[in-house]
């Protein structure tokens, strides 16, 4: 569990999460198996008002002049994880694998269970002298540090009004979703705090929510299929340091050819994005700053709404700032964050209800009731503004708990 959480979920976010990740260690011949995960659930109440914005994260009114009020019991941004991993040392190589499933806590519709995901299935091999190679499905490389630094990873954030396997946290209101991708990646050793990762990942289709489609739904990297004639290329580099003033800085990027299911004139073009971020921690205080810039990418999912219906690239950018403080001897972490994601219409487009900007304020309290169990309270205020200046708003209060084992 230590390996899984550190690589893919929450130990990069809070010390409470990493120290609670004990796992169940099982010797099995040449292997050491580790079974672990987390379970979380939240009561959420979302008050929505205003217009419906295509690709927007604000609430929408059921009728003109009215508002909506939605209560759910659901999983937060971090899905429930049940993970089995194993490691061994053979022929001077560290060999390991991870397989996990993510059952939801929500009831999707009357009498049916919420969705279940399979986000991880990968192997690694390598040595501390030269690094490691990963093959399989895991968290994407680009924008991964943005989501792992987001305080709402242990909470809810945006998107609580729609029942699903997870909420959105700050996805779409400060960073693009790193996603869980099939990949072949190389990670360097740690050279006095500096390290990098580079890899090829499965390419996304390019779709547009204002062109009859709402989400990229298929993967392909064939010359005649979807996703382009080649995989996506992703990479990141970071420098991390310890001490009384500890911290980390990072940059990452993605580029891929894109084709289309829903945009007739797109042809084959290239979408790309870069980001930069930093964390600093001193005397219980934490500060995070993050910024991204893209062309041919959207505001939430990387390849959603990146092009207009004529096949012209849209530009996008965004970022967030976050401040936290851990109360001494109590352990409660208090946090406040603000972020936005913006999408520019092309010169050929007229104003529409397609999203122009998602913006969110979040305040939260994360209390370690035990070393494994954290109580969480959050309030998030989201505003979505469309290209035609119509707006949708949503305010969400969430209360719940997350347990690591």
Automatic annotation (TrEMBL):
Gene Ontology CC annotation, any one: membrane
UniProt cross-references to SUPFAM superfamilies, sorted A to Z: Porins (SSF56935)
Domain (Porin) ranges: 10-386
MF annotations from Gene Ontology: porin activity
InterPro entries: Gram_neg_porin_domain (IPR033900), Porin_dom_sf (IPR023614)
Pfam families: Porin_4
Name assigned to this protein: Porin domain-containing protein
Species of provenance: mine drainage metagenome
Taxon lineage: unclassified sequences, metagenomes, ecological metagenomes
């Amino acid at each position: 569990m230590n390996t899984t959480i550190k690589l893919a979920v929450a130990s990069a976010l809070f010390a409470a999460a990493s120290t609670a990740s004990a796992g169940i260690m099982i010797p099995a011949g040449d292997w050491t198996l580790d079974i672990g995960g987390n379970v979380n659930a939240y009561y959420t109440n979302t008050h929505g008002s205003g217009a419906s914005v295509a690709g927007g994260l604000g609430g929408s009114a059921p009728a003109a002049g009215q508002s909506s009020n939605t209560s759910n019991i659901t999983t937060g941004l971090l899905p429930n994880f049940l993970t089995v991993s194993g490691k061994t040392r053979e022929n001077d190589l560290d060999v390991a694998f991870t397989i996990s499933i993510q059952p939801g806590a929500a009831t999707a519709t009357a009498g049916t269970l919420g969705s279940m995901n399979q986000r991880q299935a990968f192997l690694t091999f390598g040595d501390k002298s030269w690094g490691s190679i990963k093959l399989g499905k895991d968290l994407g490389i680009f924008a991964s540090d943005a989501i792992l630094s987001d305080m709402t990873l242990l909470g809810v954030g945006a998107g609580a009004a729609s029942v699903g396997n997870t909420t959105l946290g700050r996805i779409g209101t400060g960073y693009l979703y790193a996603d869980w991708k099939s990949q072949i990646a190389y990670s360097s050793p740690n050279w006095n705090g500096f390290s990098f990762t580079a890899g090829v990942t499965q390419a996304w289709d390019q779709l547009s929510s204002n062109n009859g489609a709402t989400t990229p739904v298929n993967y392909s990297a064939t010359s005649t299929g979807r996703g382009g004639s080649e995989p996506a290329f992703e990479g990141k580099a970071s420098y991390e340091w310890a001490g009384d003033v500890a911290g980390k800085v990072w940059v990452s990027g993605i580029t891929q050819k894109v084709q289309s299911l829903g945009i007739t004139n797109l042809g084959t073009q290239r979408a790309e994005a870069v980001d930069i971020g930093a964390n600093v921690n001193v005397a219980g205080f934490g500060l995070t700053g993050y910024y991204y810039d893209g062309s041919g990418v959207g505001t939430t999912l990387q390849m959603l709404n990146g092009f207009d219906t004529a096949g012209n690239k849209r530009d996008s950018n965004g970022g967030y700032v976050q401040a936290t403080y851990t109360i001494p001897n109590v352990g409660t972490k208090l946090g406040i964050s603000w972020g936005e994601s913006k999408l520019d219409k092309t010169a050929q487009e007229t104003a529409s209800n397609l999203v122009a900007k998602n913006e969110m304020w979040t305040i939260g309290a994360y209390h370690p009731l035990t070393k494994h169990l954290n109580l969480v309270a959050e309030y998030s205020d989201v505003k979505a503004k469309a290209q035609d200046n119509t707006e949708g708003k949503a305010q969400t209060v969430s209360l719940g708990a997350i347990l690591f084992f």
